[in-house]
Amino acid sequence: MGKGDIKTKKGKTNRGTFGASRPKKESNKLARKKKFEVKEK
Questions:
Q1: What pTM, to 2 d.p., does this model score?
Q2: Which of 11, 13, 15, 37 has the highest CB neighbour number within 10 Å of its CB?
Q3: DSSP 8-state symbol, 39
Protein backbone atom coordinates (compact mmCIF):
# COMPACT_ATOMS: atom_id res chain seq x y z
CA MET A 1 0.00 0.00 0.00
CA GLY A 2 1.59 3.17 -1.19
CA LYS A 3 1.15 6.07 -3.54
CA GLY A 4 -0.54 3.98 -6.23
CA ASP A 5 -3.17 2.49 -3.90
CA ILE A 6 -6.50 4.21 -4.60
CA LYS A 7 -8.13 3.19 -1.31
CA THR A 8 -5.55 4.72 1.05
CA LYS A 9 -5.09 8.31 2.20
CA LYS A 10 -1.62 8.43 0.67
CA GLY A 11 -2.98 7.25 -2.68
CA LYS A 12 -5.78 9.83 -2.54
CA THR A 13 -3.37 12.71 -1.84
CA ASN A 14 -1.12 11.53 -4.66
CA ARG A 15 -4.00 11.50 -7.17
CA GLY A 16 -5.69 14.60 -5.72
CA THR A 17 -9.02 12.82 -5.24
CA PHE A 18 -11.39 12.47 -2.31
CA GLY A 19 -13.38 9.57 -0.82
CA ALA A 20 -14.09 7.67 2.38
CA SER A 21 -10.43 7.57 3.40
CA ARG A 22 -9.91 11.27 2.58
CA PRO A 23 -13.16 13.23 3.00
CA LYS A 24 -13.48 16.88 2.10
CA LYS A 25 -13.93 19.43 4.89
CA GLU A 26 -17.49 20.44 5.76
CA SER A 27 -16.75 24.15 5.29
CA ASN A 28 -15.49 23.48 1.77
CA LYS A 29 -18.65 21.51 0.92
CA LEU A 30 -20.87 24.45 1.87
CA ALA A 31 -18.77 26.93 -0.09
CA ARG A 32 -18.75 24.71 -3.20
CA LYS A 33 -22.49 24.11 -2.97
CA LYS A 34 -23.14 27.85 -2.75
CA LYS A 35 -20.74 28.61 -5.63
CA PHE A 36 -22.26 26.07 -8.04
CA GLU A 37 -25.86 26.59 -6.99
CA VAL A 38 -28.22 26.53 -9.98
CA LYS A 39 -30.31 29.67 -10.20
CA GLU A 40 -33.90 29.15 -11.31
CA LYS A 41 -35.57 31.63 -13.63
A1: 0.48
A2: 11
A3: P
